[in-house]
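Reopening this ticket.

The earlier resolution said the output was attached, but the attachment link was broken on my side. Pasting everything inline this time so it's all in one place.
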Amino acid sequence: MTQPQTKSRNGAQTASQAGQPLDLTTELSGFLNDFSSFQADVKSRLSKQEDRMTLLDRKTISNARPALSTTIDTGAPHKKAFNAYLRTGDDDALRGLELEGKALSTAVAADGGYLVDPQTSDTVHSVLKSTASLRAIANVVNVEATAFEVLVDHTEMGSGWASETSNLTETATPQIERITIPLHELSALPKASQRLLDDSAFDIEGWLATRIADKFATSEAAAFITGDGADKPRGFLTHPTIDNDNWGWGNLGYIATGADGDFATGQAADAIVTLVYSLGAKYRANGAFVMNSKTAGAVRKMKDADGRFLWSDGLAAGEPARLMGYAVLIAEDMPDIATDAYAIAFGDFAAGYTVAERPDLRILRDPFSAKPHVLFYATKRVGGDVSDFAAIKLLKFSAS
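Inline output:
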């Protein structure tokens, strides 16, 4: 009978064919070595292929990226969609952003409008912060509710000394005051012609931000000082006032100048000094004056007993002027010097006055009410009120 022939891995006859005994250990070891070489070769080829694919992906991404762009602009889709809405009224892109979950809370409501793009919103807020408004020195908080509540402990918690053997005296209970600051709707209504909106060179977002910021800043500045609280913030000058010697919570204390409608003759600087030191020490460290330009013109001429001016201008651009070393905010809505007028205020307004606002700014496009112009109804919600009556003092231009 013919015996089957076997061959080695390279095709040669095995040792048994050559008349020699078969060494299985040697043959198996050789097979494993060949298989390991095959595996290493496959891995090497796969690694090279992956490197080539990675390089190709990088080139593709690099070619697709716009010039000078190194990061993803998350606000770009919203900005582009918002621009289309302002120019043509097409809100499909804004609705699409909301449906895809990419919108920054674009809240589609025909009556409520759409949130502006982040860049425009930031521009408006930066202008509001930089304007000559009480907002610049007040406490500003962002809220999501319709009102903001401030809890103020305006009494001192009792305390006392104790020894090891003496009886302890019961201390007094602090009194907590709750102040509610409701938010009101602040609006602006700039308008532009459709022909201007059709001009692609026209910076619609920049124009809109400037107009909205100007209107908001003017309305806010007045309300924070003289607002009556009816559909607007309540200004600090609308609260009851009382002679500082008889001051009590719920009132603003005042210091009289000693002359009706003017500073006392020969003692003009004394009234300013008395006003400063009528404020508690813990508030005085962060104190600031508030007055209008006309009053500032009169005050900056004052000198102390040694002939030195009380007023000093800021040493750098943008730095506020100082009166007796304290910053001066020029707020044109403060009253002029007149009989019984509270023309100067001094206090720690970061503690004494709180501005509460919702961070969102909404725009509703109206192409029908003022043809051939297009109206842009911009709204935001803001409130303000005194949050600590001990932190603000007033200078009253009266004999007593």
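Reporter confirms the inline version is readable. Residues 257 and 271 are 5 Å apart (CA to CA). The domain at 76-154+175-230+357-385 is CATH 3.30.2400 (Major capsid protein gp5 fold).
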